[in-house]
């Protein structure tokens, strides 16, 4: 077991990043023209990194499996992006953003990285405004803010319910400028299938052209992995169906340690599962919890009547509703962090109070917000003798202006009007806090291989606060990697171009071809989706929202057996020489089947509850997470040894010099 060096700079916390930037090596503009960088993934982290590195003068190649960089899954983010600008004058600061993030992650994040994130957060907003991102504004012209879970201030900047889309369009425009200049070569519909090491350093990738089936070699002086998270190991998640772990897993198998895989976020406000036919779930933005109140019936008999269709939620009087988050967590109410809200919803549904046919749903109700905003409108418009109906209609218009596209989306999917009846929501797999281990420079344990955004583990600990994903992705891409990569690349100014006609590229390409051909030649009887769904059920039932040792041990054995069956009986039609979406999925599911075992192994080893990792054996009398700081205050980074079950644990001990570590309380 090794102890990892995170390369955190010395000195006071607030000075570490400034001092580090002053101390690291630089590459002069003339030399940047001779250095190549590969970026895998073109979401907010990869796209911003590619655009900035190209703007600095590096030659960049970008790879994405989508048909355009603007279709990266970052586009699906709805609610907003955090930054400590204190526009609301409610007491926000860099330190408070830092503190909320570390506390929200249940004291399992690296202090120095999180403080840096808070420091650069304001710059992100300025950058995006300059790009033309249409953030919402309040009456005085300043950018507007709203609240998200786990905080007591309003620091979330937003563009209605499509913040990710607008940020990605800004990032994409910056990329397009560099593509037009010839500084970025964009490879769309390409999937990275292996990392090439030369002399122990990352020097390129093997990619498959998903349109022609051609296997391609691409070299560079450094490689950035920004390919997102691995939530689709559960099959059903809020991720795009194509989202996968393949790029991260390939570098893991080449020597990059995988950190905290069991730290996965369950989002509390998703549209509930409706049946076996579903292939993905839809997220309803956490921003809705600003104005929506979450409840279930107080009486079991009322819940049962609602499930049978004998009673409507609007029939229940106020005194017959249990606003359980407001009852249990009065200080934060409906804006508790995601892990807390998710477990509370599960507890109520497990107790029999669920409100849809499956019994796995709670209500998100805006009726109080309609009346509150309506009364404000009546007052500001000086309307006299307004009826209750008029007040409500005015309030509906305010809510529609804030969240209209989210309400439209809900109605299209569920076929119920959320203005007339409360939304139904239930927790679902959303974001992965675990990922590739990186040091302070965002470099993995492979020299020259970096990881950014959701693909790395670095900033969120055991639970991510809402609206922090976009913040981390853009911080990594715009303001961290362009500095820290320069320090590494300064040693490559005399290296020259990296050739691809070497034995290292030969061996990597041959390995990729062999795996693809083996999938085609298996000639089994079951589809790739058949195995993916079975893996997802194992993961959700035994490694999901709550975990225990017996279930985790069973999951490890079941996943091993499923993986063996997959390689023995998977059916992949077609050939490897052209477009073949089933072949693409086969490679991704093969990686999920290995990741799933490591995921369960990590959850079994961590004998505590923290954030999104809830072990049933370790909880307080009130059912809250019970950490073990004495034995588990570290990052668990796993080294691949040939089999996921035989991975070696390395620890990065976490030290908190600027925050008092204590039991989280949102009451």
Overview of this protein structure:
The chain is of the alpha+beta class. Among the domains are: 161 residues, Succinate dehydrogenase/fumarate reductase flavoprotein, catalytic domain (Flavocytochrome C3, Chain A, domain 1, Alpha-Beta Complex); 129 residues, Methane Monooxygenase Hydroxylase, Chain G, domain 1 (Up-down Bundle). It has 18 helices and 19 strands. The strands form five sheets. A five-stranded parallel β-sheet has the order 5-2-1-9-17, with helices on both faces. Strands 11-15-14-12-13 form a five-stranded antiparallel β-sheet. A four-stranded antiparallel β-sheet has the order 16-10-18-19. A hairpin with a 5-residue loop joins β7 and β8. α4 crosses α5 and α15 packs antiparallel against α16.
The secondary structure category is alpha+beta
Computed CA radius of gyration, to the nearest angstrom: 25 Å
Kindly state the percentage of residues in helix: 25-40%
CATH topology of the domain at 269-429: Flavocytochrome C3, Chain A, domain 1
User: Oligomeric state of the chains?
Assistant: single chain
| Morphology | globular
CATH class of the domain at 269-429, please? Alpha Beta
Count of distinct strands: 19
Keywords: Cell membrane, Electron transport, FAD, Flavoprotein, Membrane, Oxidoreductase, Transport
EC number: 1.3.5.1
GO biological process, one term: anaerobic respiration
Domain FAD-dependent oxidoreductase 2 FAD-binding: 36-470
